[in-house]
Amino acid sequence: ATWIFNRHYTFNTERRYSLRGEWARYLLAMAAGFSLNFSVYSFFVYHYAMVQRIPALGVAAGSVAGLVINFAASRYWVFRRR
């Protein structure tokens, strides 16, 4: 659903890649964002007692890191203009 929404609304432009190619790039980019998100969360939970008590802080930090990677990858690689 997010790929379709991004394709039609957020990054609506002339396509550079085929449908399958764009989908594959999207999955890879989102997997990278997830990996960074989880890594940052894990780092904060492991190293900071405050985050162990309030895990939402780790979730927030991971979410921001993942958001940056996901948006940049979508903008400059997946839904790149011709």
Largest sheet: none
Instruction: List unreliable stretches of 5+ residues.
Output: none
How many helices in DSSP terms? 4
Number of strands: 0
Q: Quickly give the structural class.
A: mainly alpha
Computed Rg? 15 Å
Helix content: over 70%
Instruction: Give, in order, the helices and strands.
Output: HHHH
Whole-number mean pLDDT: 91
Shape: elongated
State the end-to-end CA separation: 24 Å
Q: Give the amount of beta strand, in percent.
A: under 5%
Describe the structure using short key phrases:
mainly alpha, elongated
Q: Could you characterize what this model shows?
A:
The protein is mostly helical and 82 residues long. The protein is built from four helices and no strands. The protein has helices at 2-10, 19-47, 49-53, 55-78. Helix 2 (19-47) runs antiparallel to helix 4 (55-78). The longest helix is centred in the middle third of the chain and has 29 residues, at 19-47. The mean pLDDT is 91.
List the helices and strands and how they pair.
Elements: H1 2-10, H2 19-47, H3 49-53, H4 55-78
Helix pairs in contact: 2-4
Short description:
With 82 residues, this protein is mostly helical. The protein has 4 helices and no strands.
